[in-house]
TrEMBL record:
Keywords: Membrane, Transmembrane, Transmembrane helix. The lineage of its organism: Bacteria, Bacillati, Actinomycetota, Actinomycetes, Propionibacteriales. This is Integral membrane protein. It comes from Kribbella karoonensis. The chain crosses the membrane at residues 12-31, 37-56, 77-100, 112-130, 135-154, 166-186.
């Protein structure tokens, strides 16, 4: 965990993506005067961050060092998911605070924080499955943005199962499934 925190803190892109998440989420919500609308804009940088935490190590070859230092692949992926999820929850809390000040319901703000955190975990798992930044980002963003667009053309089951429009338990299942598959393939 300590090593993952160090990697996240010392990577300049991570801080920028967290800042963009907070600024875009809060800024859009304030501009539109709808307290939590910014969540949907904030999910893109969160997805990119989650992917880059894993795939960045593959692209520069440091994954070998990480896996030598911590041979348990499950522990490595769990640490990455925990660190990214915690950092995203912190950034998302800024949106939650702004939303609460704008009159949003506390349960809705908690759901927004949980949603963005789960998107980051889904992204970590997806990157562990495909190892390539561009492909993983494309997969996660496609999974988030395509189903709502095609939902009017197909049965409502798509809306109920798509990560962006489904309930938190469904999104949790997507994130857990991605982490489990990622762990399996990492072994």
């Amino acid at each position: 965990m300590r090593a993952e925190w160090t990697k996240l803190r010392t990577t300049s892109g991570a801080a920028w993506l967290l800042a963009v998440t907070a600024i875009v989420s809060v800024g859009l919500s304030v501009a539109v005067k709808t307290p939590l609308i910014g969540v949907y804009a904030g999910q893109a940088p969160v997805a990119v961050l989650g992917v880059l935490v894993v795939s960045g190590e593959y692209s520069n070859g440091l994954i070998g060092t990480t896996l030598t230092a911590v041979p348990s692949r499950a522990a490595v992926l769990a640490a990455k998911a925990t660190v990214v999820g915690t950092a995203v929850a912190g950034a998302a809390s800024m949106l939650a605070l702004a939303a609460l000040m704008a009159g949003a319901a506390p349960h809705a703000t908690a759901r927004a924080v949980a949603y963005l955190t789960l998107i980051s975990v889904l992204s970590v798992g997806t990157a562990a499955v495909v190892h390539d930044s561009a492909v993983a980002i494309g997969c996660v963003l496609g999974l988030l943005y395509v189903p709502p667009v095609v939902a009017p053309l197909v049965p409502h089951v798509v809306e109920k199962l798509a990560p962006m429009t489904a309930s938190l338990p469904v999104l949790t299942s997507w994130a857990a499934g991605a982490l489990l598959l990622g762990t399996r393939l990492l072994r």
